[in-house]
Predict the structure.
Amino acid sequence: MRTSVLALGLSILFLTVSFTSQPAYSADSSSPKGDIMFTASDAIRKSGFPLSNAVEADGWVFLSGALGSVPGQGLVPGGIEPETRQTMENIKALLAAQGLGMDRVVKCTVMLADMAEWPAFNTVYAEFFEGNYPARSAFGVNGLAANARVEVECLARR
């Protein structure tokens, strides 16, 4: 129960974040605490969710979980493949706002609503990396926010 509540909170985060040509994240939405930098979008701060979109500590960048949603529109239609593609685009945008690319991702955790969709997920996921794939864990869950099929969280190194 506790895991699904946490997944719900992290997943809702990406239903409210805007990934447009104007970065949803910028230096002015970051707050340092010692050598740790917390980055929260305006949407997250206004929502009152107790989390950050990204936290950087000692060159490590921890990203909150991402869903295949488009702000104001919800989840992309079509199932696991379109949702995976949008999820990875959302991660790519969040990394870009941190000044990083997908090549800096070292670990991903994947949550799937149905492990039978693992092959379809892998096909799309692989498109976002060039040869060097991050370490990865995956597990099936008993539901994700907004009836999502997939959620991915990542760890990157500056």
